[in-house]
Amino acid sequence: MAYGNRMSQQFHGSQQHHNRGRKKEDENDALMRLPDKEIAGCINDIGIPFTAADLIKPNPQQIQMVFEWFAELLMNMTRETVEPAMRAAADEICGDYPDIVPTDTRNLMGFFTSLRRLMMECGVNDFTFTDLTKPTHDRLVKIFSYLINFVRFRESQTPVIDEHFNKGEKIKSRIDTLYTENQEMEQRLEEMRRTLKANEAQVKDKVRRNDELKARLLELRRNQERVAEMLERAKADKARRQAQLEEKTEKVVRTRQEVEKLRPYVMESPISLQASLSELSENLLREKAQIDAMEKRARALQTSSDTFTVVSNDVQACVRLLEDISVELQKEDEEESRASRNREAISERGNNVREVEQTEKLLQRQLSRWNERIESLRKNAQEKAEVAQARMEELREVQKQLREERAEKQRDMERRRIRIEQTEKKMADLKENIESEIQSAHDEYLKLESHIKLYITDMEKCL
């Protein structure tokens, strides 16, 4: 019984607390509540025909249109904006039967979900789907009053809202600009890398060609030196041969002169002349043979001289080729200097890209910190929700126990009431019996009294 009394006291205490909270909410509603005419005037001001009679006898379609206008004003949301998400959800849940839920009902349910979030922000925590489908006058007055007061508060805070909105837009535009610049820098970096790779291939090709030309130049120089040595030797041999030819020609001339001088002396002796003639013929033949040999040698030397001329022309062509190669080498040096400048520009661009990457990493870290804060807030909210859920479960258990106690007490009271009724019935029966007995006793008393009086009368008569 003591436990029952404590539970009853706790139930009465919670009921009193609930009554106080309800009373406080009623006081807030009374403070926030606006007259019907003012509500109708505010709704007319937004461009929707509305009267106080429409508020007293509400039409669900008209009320939904008013709610949709408020949602579009405050959240930029209508039933058309929630239609794609609701259609996707219906396709995912219903599968092959997407038309099992009508489109209007589906969109209205999605609109109600977003509208309920708006109502909770406005202070209406008990907004239900019935307020859209079966609105009543009291509920509409309360909801519209809270909505209109929220809109007025929002209009009074327009500079602050605009300031934060402008800051958000600036940050968003800055992020878009940085992202675009980052993309452009990445494209330019990729292009520079491709150009660098292409230039590296060209540089490698030109270096290879330069090495080949250097090797060819060295080989040509060695050939030129060999040809020059051969030319010098041929020139020396030619001079020597020419000197020998001149010497032999001079000898022939002197010999002929001597022959002319000796001819008169030889004419006198035919045999000696014959011998001299044969000797001279032999000498002449030898001289002719030598002259032919010398002419052949001269022609060979001329051929060698022509060959040397051709070789000298080739050498000059090689010299010109070397000059062209030197020009190409200068161009290669210029290309290398240009490539070095490009490398410096690429390194500078790389530094800029690294700065952009560092900025991006900084923004990513800030974003991660904000995400962590949001996650911590979400965890705190979830923990609070879990605590509230646990508290709700405890209160439900207490409510269940109180209901059981109340039911038990009601059963006990019913039994006692039955007993009381039975007792009252018994008491009524006893009362009737007692009254009947009293009446019979009274009748007996009257009879006895009459008998006594009669007896006394008889006694008096006897005396």
TrEMBL record:
Annotated localization: Chromosome, Centromere, Kinetochore; Nucleus
Alphabetical list of InterPro entries matching this protein: Kinetochore_Nuf2_N, Nuf2_DHR10-like, Nuf2_N_sf
Pfam families (UniProt xref): Nuf2, Nuf2_DHR10-like
Example GO molecular function: protein-containing complex binding
Keyword Metal-binding: no
Keywords assigned: Cell cycle, Cell division, Centromere, Chromosome, Coiled coil, Kinetochore, Mitosis, Nucleus
Region (Disordered): 1-26, 331-352
GO CC annotation, single: nucleus
Start-end of Basic and acidic residues biased regions: 337-352
Domain spans labelled Kinetochore protein Nuf2 N-terminal: 28-167
Any GO BP: attachment of mitotic spindle microtubules to kinetochore
Residue span, Nuf2 DHR10-like domain: 281-397
Polar residues: compositionally biased ranges: 1-14
Coiled coil: 175-304, 353-451
Family named by the database record: Belongs to the NUF2 family.
Function: Acts as a component of the essential kinetochore-associated NDC80 complex, which is required for chromosome segregation and spindle checkpoint activity.
Name of the protein: Probable kinetochore protein NUF2
Lineage: Eukaryota, Fungi, Dikarya, Ascomycota, Pezizomycotina
